[in-house]
Fold:
Amino acid sequence: MKISIIDREGNKHILEADNNSTLMEVIRDKGLDIEAACGGCCACATCHVYISDKWLNKLKQKDDEEESMLDQAFDVKNNSRLSCQIELSEELDGLELELAPE
Ligand code: FES
Structure:
């Protein structure tokens, strides 16, 4: 599956992903600039991304843990998600998102 990501400089990257990963793992492992300080435990909010509007409803809803971490993040928008909480699956092939500011 492929994921389309706009980095903080505005450059677009098309990443090949496998669907047993989280979105954060793919972004991190392909070397894009994402801190993901807690390693995916939903405890840091440094894996914050903006999901493109047309994909937002195709993701599983945020759970309470993700909501409360996002409350502590900066520049939160209505399409903000924590990428470590998004499990990739074939239905998300073509997912489009943008990295949030650090
Ligand atoms: S990596 Fe820490 S909350 Fe996602």
